[in-house]
Structure formats: structure tokens, C-alpha cells
């Protein structure tokens, strides 16, 4: 029999208590659906992916599922923040124990903010041509530390479905202003058109104009803002104040990369995430300053492992078992973490706190761990 444990140390050195560690919100948990109403249509692929029925009153304007979000919509009602299954808003949960949720290194570098917005996005129609400010523009004109570099990990796509990214030719400022004023099809026609298929991944740097075509279903990683310059807005019925972030049109257009985005530049932004065997990055290296998308692909004879991290874990293929706490003693010497297994299958979306420890994936299953930058 093991001897009884020593008495607890004085309060200021109190380790995380057993009751706190066993609190289910501190272990891998399934993320509830979080689909705010948007101006464009879509959403059925999200429900299908997550194995949910389409409700009879489905309004077809739920095209985005905001996963582990601490971000609010810029307009359209301001929803978006994740509420955990126990009713706690995610920012409040993080604030109760930042080191456990995010890890002490992350908290020291970035504060009590994941610094990441992860979404499932189902384009039920082509999205408007838009761009997002980069960090420098957001800091100078929007009083915000984050721009909105984003990345698309294509999970599903209709045959011949496509996305558009970057102007093919350089557009002088007055020509961009003319196209935005005209609000016709020339704006889309000026962009690189890229056919996409499941397995594609693209990084979309802040400033680059883009659109996602109808029938494309992506896992999307973004800097945690909802700052968009809606270059195309009239056909979507968006107010100018919403379309241009409350800035004057000329000022807002200064945030747009007028190109060109060449074939070579485009190639540098692309990857095939399905080419990863074992463990590897879904996105180009340049993404690492903003977020990390790590593919863990386990096969029947080779598990895949990952280090402790705050992560949105999205199972994208197959099924198997995710074990957390495989480092047994936990990531913090004061904390006891028992290994814990969770069955995972395509469509499952888990939130895994840093304090849950190292992870091991077994079975015939692929997950993508969406994580803040290091
Ligand atoms: Zn975008």
C-alpha cells in the first residue's frame, strides 16, 4: 500500500487540486456547434460533417462554425464567442486558469488570449471578394494588435469548385477604387482563380484579396479578429460602414495588396495537407507567425504523437482514440494528469487544454490540431 501523502504545502505554493484537475472543462471536451447568423448562405456541410441533422427551421445562413472562439462578429449581431457545455463563456474559463488552458509560455508571450480563431466554413454560395488588414494596418488604423491573416484547409469540395486569391496583375490605386466603385464582375475576374480539392491548403496573408467559391468546405485558421474589407458588398446587401470597417473608402483600400500575386507567389502559399504522413504541418512555413495546423495521422501500426498545447482538434478522417496526459506526470510538476482516452471519428471537434498534457493518436484516423503560434 502506498504511504499517505505529505500534508499540503502553504497556500501560496498550493498545487492544482485534484478536484480542479478532474473538472471536466479542463480535459478534452467536445465543442458545441457555434454558428452565428451570417449575411451569406451555407451551413449544411457543417451539420453533415458533425453528424447532425438539419433542423426543420434551418435558415441556411449558418455557414461558419466558430470553434473555441473568443472573438465577436464585427457586425451582424456581434455573436461568435464560444460557450462551453457547462454554460461558461470560453474567455471566462480561460481567465480562471490561464496557465492550465494556454500554458505558461503562451500566457507570458501573448496574455490570456488564444490568439487564434478556428472555424469550419461551408460556402453555400460564392463569398464576396474581400480582404483583411494585416497587423501593421490594424495597429495603425483600427486600434487592434491583430490583423487577419487566414488559412484554408480544404476538407471537401464539389468537382471544379474553386477559390480566388490575389490580383493577377498589379492594380494601380485608382483602378482598384474604380472597380470597387463599380461593384461589378470585373473585381472577381482580376483575381487568380484556383480549383481546389480535398487535401489542399492555402495561406491567405493579410491584405490579399480573396473569395471562396460555392461548394467549398474548409477548416479555417485566422488571427482572432473579424476585420474584413468587403470589396464586393452591394450584391450582398452590406452597409458601407460594415464593408469598410468604419474607415473612409480610400483609407480602407490602402489595406489591400494590389498585387501582382504571381504563379510563383501563389505556389509558396499552397500545400497538400493530405501528403503528411505521421506528424507534419498542414500549412506553409510562413503561417507559423500566426497559427499552427498540425496534422496527426495514425495508422493501425503507427500511432502519432504531439506535445502539450491549447488546441482545437478536428478529426478529419477515419476513427480511433486520442489519449491525453501520455506524459503521465503532466506538463507542470505540480499537477497530476492521468492519461485519458477519447474516441474520435471524422467530424468530432475537441478542445484540448495545454494542461491535459502530451497527446497520442491511435487507430486509422487523421486529426488536425489547430494551435496558436509558438
Ligand atoms: Zn477572408
From TrEMBL:
Key word NAD present: no
Disordered, as annotated region: 1-33
Keyword tags: Isomerase, Metal-binding, Zinc
GO molecular function: isomerase activity
Signal peptide: none
UniProt xrefs under InterPro entries: Carb_Metab_Reg_Kinase/Isom, RmlC-like_jellyroll, RmlC_Cupin_sf
Protein name, UniProt field: Class I mannose-6-phosphate isomerase
Source organism of this protein record: Terrabacter ginsenosidimutans
Amino acid at each position: 500500500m502506498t504511504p499517505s501523502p505529505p500534508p499540503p504545502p502553504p497556500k501560496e505554493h498550493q498545487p492544482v487540486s485534484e478536484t480542479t484537475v478532474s473538472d471536466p472543462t479542463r480535459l478534452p471536451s467536445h465543442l458545441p456547434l457555434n454558428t452565428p447568423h451570417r449575411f451569406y448562405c451555407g451551413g449544411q456541410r457543417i451539420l453533415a460533417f458533425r453528424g447532425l441533422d438539419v433542423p426543420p427551421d434551418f435558415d441556411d445562413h449558418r455557414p461558419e462554425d466558430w470553434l473555441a472562439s473568443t472573438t465577436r462578429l464585427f457586425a451582424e449581431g456581434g455573436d461568435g464567442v464560444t460557450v462551453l457545455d457547462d454554460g461558461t463563456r470560453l474567455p471566462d474559463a480561460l481567465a480562471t486558469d490561464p496557465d492550465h488552458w494556454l500554458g505558461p509560455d503562451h500566457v507570458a508571450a501573448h496574455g490570456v488570449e488564444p490568439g487564434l480563431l478556428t472555424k469550419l466554413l461551408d460556402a453555400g454560395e460564392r463569398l464576396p471578394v474581400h480582404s483583411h488588414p494585416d497587423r501593421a494596418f490594424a495597429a495603425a488604423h483600427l486600434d487592434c494588435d491583430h490583423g487577419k491573416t487566414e488559412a484554408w484547409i480544404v476538407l471537401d469540395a464539389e468537382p471544379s469548385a474553386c477559390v480566388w486569391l490575389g490580383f493577377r496583375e498589379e492594380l494601380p490605386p485608382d483602378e482598384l477604387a474604380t472597380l470597387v466603385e463599380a461593384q461589378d464582375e470585373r473585381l472577381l475576374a482580376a483575381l487568380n482563380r484556383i480549383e481546389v480539392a480535398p487535401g489542399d491548403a492555402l495561406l491567405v496573408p493579410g491584405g490579399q484579396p480573396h473569395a471562396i467559391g460555392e461548394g467549398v468546405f474548409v477548416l479555417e485558421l485566422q488571427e482572432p479578429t473579424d476585420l474584413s474589407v468587403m470589396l464586393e458588398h452591394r450584391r450582398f446587401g452590406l452597409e458601407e460602414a460594415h464593408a469598410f470597417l468604419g474607415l473612409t473608402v480610400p483609407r480602407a483600400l490602402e489595406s489591400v495588396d494590389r498585387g501582382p500575386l504571381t504563379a510563383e507567389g501563389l505556389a509558396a502559399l499552397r500545400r497538400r495537407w493530405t501528403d503528411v504522413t505521421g506528424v507534419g504541418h498542414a500549412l506553409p512555413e510562413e503561417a507559423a507567425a500566426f497559427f499552427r495546423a498540425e496534422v496527426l495521422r495514425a495508422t493501425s501500426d503507427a500511432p502519432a504523437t504531439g506535445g502539450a498545447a491549447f488546441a482545437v482538434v478536428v478529426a478529419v478522417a477515419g476513427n480511433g482514440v486520442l489519449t491525453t496526459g501520455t506524459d503521465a506526470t503532466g506538463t507542470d510538476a505540480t499537477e497530476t494528469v492521468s492519461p485519458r482516452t477519447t474516441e474520435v471519428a471524422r467530424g468530432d471537434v475537441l478542445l484540448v487544454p495545454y494542461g491535459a498534457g502530451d497527446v497520442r493518436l491511435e487507430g486509422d484516423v487523421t486529426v488536425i490540431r489547430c494551435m496558436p503560434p509558438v
